[in-house]
Structures are given as structure tokens and as C-alpha cells.
Amino acid sequence: MIDILLYLAGIAVVLIGIALSIGLHEIGHLVPAKIFGIRVNQYMVGFGPTVKSWTRGDTEYGIKAIPLGGYILMAGMYPPESRPYRGPFANWIKEARKQVREGISELDEDRQFYKLSAPKKLIIMLGGPVMNLLLGVLLILVALSGIGTMQSTLSVNKVYDCVEADASGACPTGAPQSPALISGLLPGDTVSMANGQPVISWTEVVAQLNKNQTSPSTLTVLRDGIEREITISPTFIETQVFLESGAAAADAAGNPVTELRPILGIQLGSKMTPMSIQDSFQFSLVATGGMLAFVADLPRQVYKVAQSTFGITERDPNGAVSILGVGQLAGELTAADISVSAKLASLLLLIGSLNLALFVFNLLPLLPLDGGHVAGAIYESGKRRITKLVTGSDPGPIDTARALPLAYAVWILLILTGVILILADVINPIRLG
User: Fold this and answer.
1) For residue 368, is the peptide bond before it cis, meaning its omega torsion is within 30 degrees of 0?
2) Catalytic hit among 26, 229, 259, 380
3) Which region, left, alpha or beta, applies to residue 406 given φ > 0 means left and ψ of -120 to 50 means alpha?
4) CA-to-CA distance for 170 and 175, rounded, in angstroms?
């Protein structure tokens, strides 16, 4: 029962975190729009039926039933039609323009979005993604530097009977004894030196053991307040090398990079260790770069997820997930047998990573994403400058309403992607460990 409650608590924390992230994203648009004098008719967090709303000034603020998105509605997003459009989607565009321009009075003439200069449009549209970037970095800094990460200590927590022991500690029949058991290492021993060299991390112990791959090594351990020297002959196993980002290392040809690693047959103790601000910030930069690469690879990721859903391939544990999958991972984190501080740090990292993903994804130069409006503002600025130089006249703002067919197509694609990922997370969910 407790595990179920913890699982549900994890899902609730992530949903609240996502709702707050979306709310702050929209504030990133709202504040500069207000500063530039634009009339903002609505500020809403969520979609669907309105749960609660209130009006301040000329803006209606509210919360909707489905907390998986949000928007602000600015006056004059589309300009008046300058010349009739007779394309295949003329009726859609006409109706959308009518709805957006409905209620605009003479008092709002200079409070319309389309009349802003390109730099001001860029500031408003970039405000949301930048807010997610700042929030993501802040949450990562709090998680890694304020709370810390689980790091192995130099203390032995458990000694296994063999190196092939399963999760319960049972050994296969006939398996040789572990090097730790043979050497006499005991739970509670704390390593202070390896091959006569002082060590302060297990990485340094491994480096010393690697120097003696064909001969025994010595470990100096503190046991009951007394230093003891132990001779040990590790089992060396070829293992995959991983980068700091967590990705598997590969050579120029794409082959996995491996190394020999000493195995003693022990479980080390662990503790939460805060990272330096500099290291945490560096981690957030690497994570942002990883998100850029991930979003660029998203079509292939979705295709792979679709294949795994129908049993064609196995699901990649590092692949794309839906909001349902994120909730499942959060639930498993809070139900896991780890400390409260480790759970909190993991949830903050998860929500921070989601904000970095929102930052990167929203910058894609496609309507209706913020990046599509950014691209439109840049295009408009360049067109107006060039036209002025060539003809001496200002062609005026571009008619973004004519790009609505593309926006609708992108919406359909996003919905299909969401359905595929949700289906995968129901049929073949990713599990921790």
C-alpha cells in the first residue's frame, strides 16, 4: 500500500512540476507582451474546460482541466487581410483571422502583436523557451549542488560469495569464490590505500588495481579502528565505457569502446554528495546539447518506439517517452528503495530535463511552435529591409495567417506522435533498472 501511495505521489509531483513549468513558460511570453503594451486577452494553463478563471485589467487568467499545455491570447496576432486569398484553405484562414481579430476596438489599434517591430516580436516569442531554459538549469543546480548525487564511498557494504551473484546474492552452482571473499574483505571495511597509494575515491582504487592485472594487489583497509593490509587478485572483465552524459562511448567507426575493469565481488556503500556549481552548470550545458541531438533525432526515435510497440524490436530504455511514460518513471523513482534526498534530487533532475526539452523543442522553426513565430519575425525583418533598399517602400508585416495550413499539419503530426508514444508507454513501458 505504501509503495502504491509513493508511486502516485511521484506522478503527482511531476504533473505539478509540468503545470508550473508551462505556467512559467507562458509568463515568459506574458510579461514582455505587457511591457510592450500589447493587449493580452487570455493567460491559460492547460487545455479543455476552464476549471477556474479570474480577470485582472483586460486579461482573463485561468486554469483548465488538462494541465498539458497553455497559451496566451494576444490581440492582433494576424493582420487585417491586405488582399484576398483564394487558395485551397481560404475558408480556414478567413475564419481564423475573424476569430483572432474579433473584439479589437479603436483603442486597441496600437496594442496589436502584428504591429510590433521584429526585435520586440522576438523577445516575446523567445521569452517562453528562455524561461524553460532558466528553470531547467536552476532545477539541475538545486538537484546536483543543493542535494547531490549518489556516489560510491570507500566503505564495503556487502561481500558476495562469487562475482556472478544475482540480485538476491545467490551464486550459480560451481561458481568460483569472489576475490573479496578469498582475500578476507568484510562488510564495514573502509579502503584507505591501494598498492601503497592513498586513495580518496573508488575511481582511484580501480586505477591502482588496473596496474596489476597479472599479479595480486594490496588494499589497506580500516577495520574496527585498526589498519589492515589485504592481498587481493581481482577478476578482470571487459565492460562498456560510458561518457559523462551517460551515453555509450563509440570509436570513429561506431563500434562500442570497452575496457578491462577489476571486479572484486563487493557492494560499496553510497552517500549523497553535492557537486560544485561549476560541475552542475557544465552538466546542464551537456544535457541541453543532448536534448538538441535528441530532438533532431526524434522522427527516428518515434519510428523505433512504434516498432517496439508491435514487438518488431526491443524498446530502447533511453528512447522517447510520452507524458505518461514520464509519470511512470517518476512513480518508480518515488517507490524505489532509496533515500528521500535521492528521490527528491532525481525528481528535480527529471523536471529540469523536461524543461530543457521544452526549451529545445519550442525553438523548432515550425508553426504553431514559438520557433515558427521566431522564424516568421526574422523573415519579416529581412523582407522589409531588403524591400526598402530596393523599392524605397515598406511592404508592411507579413500575413502569418496564410501559414495556418502548415500549423494545422504540424498539430496533426504532434498529436499522432503523442498517440504513438502513449500507446508504447501503455503496452511496453520503460522500467527503471
Assistant:
1) yes
2) 26
3) alpha
4) 10
148 close to 345: Cβ distance less than 8 angstroms: yes
Cell numbers representing residue 62 in the block: 485561468
Rounded CA-CA distance 39/33 in Å is 8
Question: What would the mean pLDDT of 245-251 be, rounded to a whole number?
Answer: 66
Phi, then psi, of 399 in degrees rounded to 5: -95, 90
Q: DSSP of 178-213, one letter per residue?
A: PHHHHHT--TT-EEEEETTEE-SSHHHHHHHHHTTT
Tell me the sheet residues that pair with 259.
239
**Structure confidence by residue, pLDDT tens digits, 286-295:** 999 989 988 8
- Which three cell numbers, joined as nine digits, stand for 324? 505518461
Confirm whether 314 is a catalytic residue: no
The yes-or-no verdict on residue 256 having pLDDT over 70 is yes
- In whole angstroms, give the CA distance from residue 385 to residue 377: 12
Backbone torsion region of residue 110, taken as left when φ is above 0, otherwise alpha when ψ lies between -120 and 50, otherwise beta: alpha
Cα separation, 310 vs 427, whole angstroms: 9
Average pLDDT for 22-36: 95
Alpha-carbon dihedral sign for residues 122, 124, 128, 134: positive
Nearest 5°: the CA angle 240, 241, 244 is: 140
Find out whether 40 and 30 touch, Cβ atoms under 8 Å: yes
pLDDT at residue 282 greater than cutoff 80: yes
**357 phi/psi in degrees, rounded to 5:** -65, -40
97 — pLDDT class (breaks 50, 70, 90): confident
Cell numbers that stand for 392 in this block: 524605397
Query: Residues 48, 65: contact at Cβ < 8 Å?
Result: yes
Q: Supply the DSSP symbol for 147.
A: I
168 three-class SS:
coil
- 358 φ/ψ angles, rounded to the nearest 5 degrees: -65, -40
Calculate the alpha carbon distances from 246 to 206, 249, 318, 320 in Å: 19, 9, 10, 16
Q: How far apart are CA 209 and CA 201, in angstroms?
A: 13
